Amino acid sequence: MKGNKVLVYGGSFDPPHRGHEALLRAAVKKIRPDKIIIVPNHQSPLKGSPHAPSKDRLIMVRIGILDTLPLKIKVISIVNTREARARRPVFTHETLSALKGDLHFVCGQDSAESFGRWKNPSRLESQATWWYGARPGAKGKVPGHFKKIPGAFPDISSTEIRSDLALDHDCSRELSPKILAYIKTRNLYGNGLVTRLKSSLKPSRYEHTLNVASLAESLARRWGANPDKARLAGLLHDAGRRFTPPQLARFARVRRLKVPNLSEIIALDPMLIHAYASEYLARTEFGIADKEVLSAIRRHTLGDKRMNLLDKILYVADATSIDRTHPNASKIRALAYNDLDAALRSSVAEKLIYTTSRHAWLHPLTVHLWNSLAPL
Ligand SMILES: [Fe+2]
Ligand SMILES: [Fe+2]
Predict the structure, then answer these.
(1) Most C-beta atoms within 10 A of its C-beta, which of 63, 177, 198, 345?
(2) pLDDT tens-digit readout, 300-344
(3) Distance in angstroms (rounded) separating the CA atoms of residues 34 and 304
(4) In DSSP terms, which residues pair with 37 in a beta bridge?
(5) Nearest CA to 93 among 58, 130, 67?
(6) Nearest CA-CA partner of 370 in 272, 302, 281, 288
(7) CA 269 to ligand 1 center in whole angstroms
């Protein structure tokens, strides 16, 4: 008689990598299920963001995990689309209540360590037998009700894979050829973004862009902002620098960019338009729809009266990236890890000193920004 042991494998699979595949195979060997249900979870990716839409993740789970399984395992496996297709986050306890059988939930070490923060952990604990795959060298504590799947599983981070894909780094060790081909065809995870940037910017500007992206990402981790968004904003913040000042003036007029005090900027310092041109290119050429990313790009030069966390991070990262040669750059960069607002204030001060020392024009937004930050 057919048993009712059900292996449930949950995760975001963004993208599915060889670590997922290895964990599932080991779990099958240990648990010996009669049925396998893979449950990609809900995410709310924005078009062009570093995350993939649900429909793409579901297809990738099929070609990257399901199709790689030996036939006798594949025939008992299905992909459950309930969470991924929902328009709201679906909690695991809801998914488990909808499933029948002797449930065995499998996840990676990071998820197991965070179990206490899942919705309704005490109910969850009684809904299934809990299994995790240990990551080599992991030091975190896994709750006592978890059983360990024998073996050590490759230390692969989806966040790093997404970064590497945007940088066109080789991911063939982490991703199967089919997944790589799919990502390329669907242009996911900003695939090739960096190559496109490289071909459109001068080498020194391209280097600066990479430096700003890496500092913005690191500051985002420090201050609890989204590192992927920070990195993306850093990569694209100077995309508009491909244009000369007269081209920027024309671009702003033809594309009707909403640049405050545009006539004065065109007359006095057209290069200041580049932040608005970068935002436009990020939206139209690179398909970015994330409002936070676009806002940070738009505000990185002139600033604004109100700056959100990502705006501040990009402003400071741009002013103090490792290629900046002004004497206080490294000091402010270090300060940014202890006091972001103080680093922002110092970055604006440096800009004011530089601009006034050249007897150049100060844009009203920068004056507003300074007045909103300067101590009374
Ligand atoms: Fe810039
Ligand atoms: Fe810049």
Answers:
(1) 345
(2) 999 998 899 999 999 999 999 999 998 899 999 999 999 999 999
(3) 59
(4) 8, 78
(5) 130
(6) 302
(7) 13
Beta strands 146-149; 129-133: pairing state? parallel
Question: Which residues lie closer than 8 Å to 15 by C-beta, 6 or more apart?
Answer: 52, 57, 60, 64, 158, 161, 162, 175, 179, 183, 188, 189
Domain boundaries, the chain: 5-157, 193-373
- Taking Cα atoms as reference points, which of 90, 133, 127 lies closest to residue 111? 133
The string of pLDDT tens digits covering residues 223-244 is 999 988 899 999 999 999 999 9
Cα 208 to ligand 2 centre (Å) = 7
Note the Cα 279 to chain centre separation in Å: 18
Output the CA–CA distances (angstroms, integers) from residue 2 to 34, 76, 97, 101, 297, in the order listed.
7, 11, 21, 12, 58
**Which superfamily does 193-373 belong to?**
Hypothetical protein af1432 (1.10.3210.10)
- Distance between CA atoms of 40 and 37, rounded to whole angstroms? 10
Taking the whole predicted model, whether its pTM rises above 0.70 is answered as: no
Query: Each residue of 248-290: pLDDT tens digit?
Result: 999 999 999 999 999 999 999 999 999 999 999 998 887 777 8
Separation of CA 213 and ligand 1 centre (Å): 12
Environment of ion ligand 1 (residues, CB < 5 A):
238
Helix (H, G, I), strand (E, B) or coil at 79: strand
- Ligand at shortest distance from the CA of 210: 2
Query: Ligand 2 centre from 165 Cα, in Å?
Result: 22
Tens digit of pLDDT for each residue in 50-78? Answer: 578 889 999 999 999 999 999 999 999 99
**How far is 303 from 320, CA to CA, in rounded Å?**
15
For 57, counting Cβ atoms within 10 Å of its Cβ (0-12 exposed, 13-18 middle, 19+ buried), the class is: buried
In the prediction, which pLDDT does 228 show?
84
371 C-alpha to ligand 2 centroid (Å):
23
